[in-house]
């Protein structure tokens, strides 16, 4: 007999059972919202759930730690998994179904199709995590086909991912509105992330300099300042604060992510840096 307590909301483990539920909703004329996640849920995820609820009659949240978006030396094995606690939070936020498939369900033997998105994946995360976006695009294409939501909410926290998903949906004619959700932050400005759980208290204190550096540089950039010296100073500040490495701190066109010398059009300042063994990313509108 299983000692696992039943989860406090309906859970679909298979694509077939998810599809049955969604089919019934659609037959009843209901609008469907969707929030894909990798679990270890925090207030940032839950803000996306609220956005989906405000735009749909029924909300599906997926929890799937997608192996294909992790590089060989990345944290797939130790990524936090806490399904029972996540399910309790989703139930409290009025989520109608949790879709929590196994890896075998998502990638049955013989699976050999990969979705790759060009251009917007060339730089930044694409440079430092070369296989990441093919994994993201493939799993998001699959999830959108499985749920077939009217609306799906993605966080601006993963800004390049948001652009990749928008491109994918346009290029593959997927009939889902992609809605961006603002980044939810801790009191000191650190963007909430499931990976913040990896930080020691010392590293957590260092991490707070990431949003400060972004905010300071963005304020200067908004006055028309040149990006290059601000980026150099920002990198130096992060290293001085205790980051071990800054992979990028970059001003980019908000739509294409092409590099910019000045914020002379809608722009985004994006950063990836390592504190201890934890890799943190963040970004801000300029
Ligand atoms: P993840 O579970 O990290 O794959 O993230 C699932 C979704 O939540 C993605 O669309 C993320 O961009 C979004 N997300 C992650 N952190 C935050 C945050 N601090 N604020 C808002 N959305 C977030």
From TrEMBL:
Just give the chief location class: cytoplasm
Q: Keywords for this entry?
A: ATP-binding, Cytoplasm, Ligase, Nucleotide-binding, Pantothenate biosynthesis
Q: What Gene Ontology molecular-function terms does this entry list?
A: ATP binding; pantoate-beta-alanine ligase activity
The UniProt record's further free-text remark is:
The reaction proceeds by a bi uni uni bi ping pong mechanism.
NCBIfam families hit by this protein: cyt_tran_rel, panC
Tell me the protein family, please: Belongs to the pantothenate synthetase family.
What does the protein in this record do?
Answer: Catalyzes the condensation of pantoate with beta-alanine in an ATP-dependent reaction via a pantoyl-adenylate intermediate.
Q: What is this protein called?
A: Pantothenate synthetase
Gene coding for it: panC
């Amino acid at each position: 007999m299983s000692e696992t307590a039943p989860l406090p909301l309906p859970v679909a483990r298979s694509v077939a059972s998810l599809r049955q539920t969604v089919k019934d909703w659609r037959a009843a004329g209901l609008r469907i919202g969707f929030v894909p996640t990798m679990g270890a849920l925090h207030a940032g995820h839950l803000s996306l759930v609220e956005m989906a609820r405000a735009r749909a009659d029924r909300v599906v949240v997926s929890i799937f730690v997608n192996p294909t978006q992790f590089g060989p030396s990345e944290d797939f094995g130790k990524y936090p998994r806490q399904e029972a606690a996540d399910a309790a939070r989703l139930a409290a936020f009025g989520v109608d179904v949790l879709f929590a498939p196994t890896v075998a369900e998502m990638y049955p033997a013989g699976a050999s199709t990969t979705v790759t998105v060009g251009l917007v994946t060339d730089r930044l995360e694409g440079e430092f995590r070369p296989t990441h976006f093919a994994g993201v695009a493939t799993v998001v294409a699959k999830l959108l086909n499985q749920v077939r939501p009217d609306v799906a909410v993605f966080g601006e926290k993963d800004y390049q991912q948001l652009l990749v998903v928008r491109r994918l949906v346009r290029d593959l004619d997927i009939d889902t509105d992609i809605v961006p959700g603002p980044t939810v932050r801790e009191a000191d400005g650190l963007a909430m992330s499931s990976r913040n759980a990896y930080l020691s208290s010392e590293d957590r204190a260092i991490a707070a300099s990431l949003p400060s550096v972004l905010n300071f540089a963005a304020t200067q950039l908004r006055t028309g300042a040149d990006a290059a010296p601000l980026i150099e100073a920002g990198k130096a500040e992060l290293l001085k604060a205790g980051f071990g490495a800054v992979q990028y701190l970059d001003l980019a066109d908000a739509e294409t992510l092409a590099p910019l010398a000045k914020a002379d059009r809608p722009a985004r300042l994006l950063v990836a840096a390592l504190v201890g063994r934890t890799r943190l990313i963040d970004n801000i509108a300029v």
